[in-house]
Amino acid sequence: MNVLGIEGTAWNLSVAVVDDERVHAVVNKAYKPKEGGIHPREASQHHAESMPSLLKKIFELFPKEKIDAIAFSQGPGLGPCLRVTATAARLLSLKLSKPLVGVNHCLAHVEIGRWLTGAKNPVTLYVSGGNSQVIARRRDRYRVFGETLDIGIGNALDKLARKFGIPHPGGPKIEELARKGEKYYPLPYVVKGMDFSFSGMVTAAEKLKGKARLEDIAYSFQETAFAMLTEVTERAMAYLGYDEMLLVGGVGANERLQEMLRTMCEDRNAKFFAPPKQFMGDNGAMIAYTGLLMLKNGFETKIEESIVKPNFRIEEVQVTWP
Ligand code: ATP
Ligand code: FE2
């Protein structure tokens, strides 16, 4: 079965085709804010304008006639962006007379991670701009064992970067700066039970402006925030007795975060998994692949049920596949 998937919850509009065995094609067009962070309406305009050319491109790479179903990211995400994606998906489904399936974006990050790494039953750390969650499966649901109480870690990194005049997305640049950091400045380490919070850290780090080298601020920020994430992930693994961990989401590209998690896993004889970088951040292949899993298990989304869900939680999805 060949499934075409459309992802467009936030900054990246991405269309891909996958089947059971492989990713056939992926095309992307990223929205970059002129200044500040992601502006939902601007991003949705970007997606609407880019959709025709992206669809044209994907059908040049993969024949339209061979598509068996259409999957789209139904949520969570920015309302205006979700609506553009859903509209395009509905249209394609009607035009090609193929079934439609609405996919939970967080579930898609986890499932493509499992697929591409071979992880069977991991504790997943999902770290992106909008989300930061520790997720694990119990029977027929994925459950969130810990999560951010305010902003996602990616958002925190982007905000900090913006304060220092670094354009969006600032995460990769903070990583680069942190590599040259030497001095550690203590920042609020906020873990409450299994949850964590980043906005206090951002404020504290911003106050170091002019008093500390930017490299040292970036370094201190990463060390503190990533230690919090590693602590909660480890606790979930210990509590559940799981011996695999999977890292997904755009911030997963960060090598220092990977190093800390890998060390934690080695210390407890657990296996660490991370998919290739291009499939860590938002991409159409994750939506297509999860749509394929759902369709093969009898799920389908009727047009009248295809309304977008900006606050869609991973726990809402029943998971009937292995
Ligand atoms: P979601 O809708 O799942 O919240 P998203 O829209 O934030 O996803 P992603 O592609 O998953 O999109 O993640 C983007 C985030 O990843 C941005 O905040 C960006 O700064 C961050 N990021 C990307 N590369 C790195 C890196 N090397 N180090 C730290 N952060 C990074
Ligand atoms: Fe994402």
Overview of this protein structure:
With 322 residues, the chain is of the alpha/beta class. It has a 5-stranded mixed β-sheet, sandwiched between helices. It has a 5-stranded mixed β-sheet with strand order 8-7-6-11-12, with helices on both faces. The chain has a two-stranded antiparallel ribbon with strand order 9-10. The chain folds into 2 domains: 144 residues, ATPase, nucleotide binding domain (Nucleotidyltransferase, domain 5); 155 residues, 2-Layer Sandwich (Nucleotidyltransferase, domain 5). The chain has 9 helices and 12 strands. The chain is globular. The structure holds adenosine-5'-triphosphate (ATP) and fe (ii) ion. The site of fe (ii) ion has 5 residues, from helix 3.
